[in-house]
Amino acid sequence: MNFKIGVIPGDGIGPEITAEAVKVLDAVAAGFGHTFEYEEILLGGASIDVHGVPLTDEAVETARGCDAVLMGSIGGDAATSPWYKLEPSKRPEAGLLKIRKELGLFANLRPAYLYNELKDACPIKESVIGPDGFDMIIVRELTGGLYFGDRITEEVNGVMTAVDTLSYNEKEIRRIAVRAFDIAMKRRKKVTSVDKANVLDSSRLWRKIVEEVAEDYPEVTLEHMLVDNCAMQLVHNPAQFDVVVTENMFGDILSDEASMVTGSIGMLSSASLNETKFGLYEPSHGSAPDIAGKGIANPIATILSAAMMLRYSLDLDREADAVEAAVERFLAEGNRTVDIAAGEKWLGTSAAGDMIAGMIS
Ligand code: NAD
Question: How far apart are CA 195 and CA 177, in angstroms?
């Protein structure tokens, strides 16, 4: 089959790691008889340098014309990069918010998976985690809630006061809940919905709508969990989670916590999806300006993001399995990049990408 894939190399290590993911996609295309056509898209600092803005309208249109978009990461060192002397709406991150909004990317998927071979990197004792590790996916609502509500900063009776608004409507809640249940159907069929329903009206509506959606998925077990308890459970018993669905800010915080529990940020992928099959796929980590250009970045998170793209946007499940199996084999055979190496022997970015691409079968 033929697919058009947008590629956003971005900033910092972004171009290095996307090149390796494309290498792996090329191996998939050759091995499974597909044609992937790539369209390069500028976003972030790379776009500011050329166009003076972090994302042009033309770039959005190019992305819209693709079946899916694979991204490296964007941004620079805030202390030294000239991009951060610009006003906030012109900085690299504004480009990311714009593309998410323009393309309606409301569902952010962040898997947190403990690789058997990397158990030593996990900060939690094996006796707590259990022999089988953990494998969860956090489904975060990405375009509503506190980050998009009305804001006011004003002086009230001589006292400076700031207000942020947390608002959700039932349509926004229903579509993210449906995504979570659909994903659970492809996994271990359990959804944990996280809210603060003992305090917030928006959470009480969230809980009601999630329960309505659950009625359409009788095979899936639904549980509700308060966000403060969830923060504890993630380090107390992460193996209990399969699919966790939650609103924007809770998801932002919990997905970072879950990724740190794996102990290997260079390994974690993510996807942001809209109401169609379209998605933007990127590693969970940032642009790592401290190691940019050194050829030592771990490309696995981006390669696994490409696997998610194959599964969720292109419906190529077998091919996604092949990429994930290649990464497992790479690790099982003792190969490591510098961030996950315990000893002195490790592979650079390109050598790691070559090896994983060579293991696609
Ligand atoms: P970071 O994730 O870029 O780096 C944190 C640490 O992890 C650094 O020591 C880095 O060297 C290391 N690291 C990250 N990815 C790695 C990889 N693949 N291989 C090996 N080591 C890796 O986080 P930060 O330093 O807080 O942010 C740097 C820049 O990235 C900032 O401009 C930030 O805004 C941006 N950022 C972008 C995104 C995105 O593009 N979606 C996400 C997060 C941060």
Answer: 13
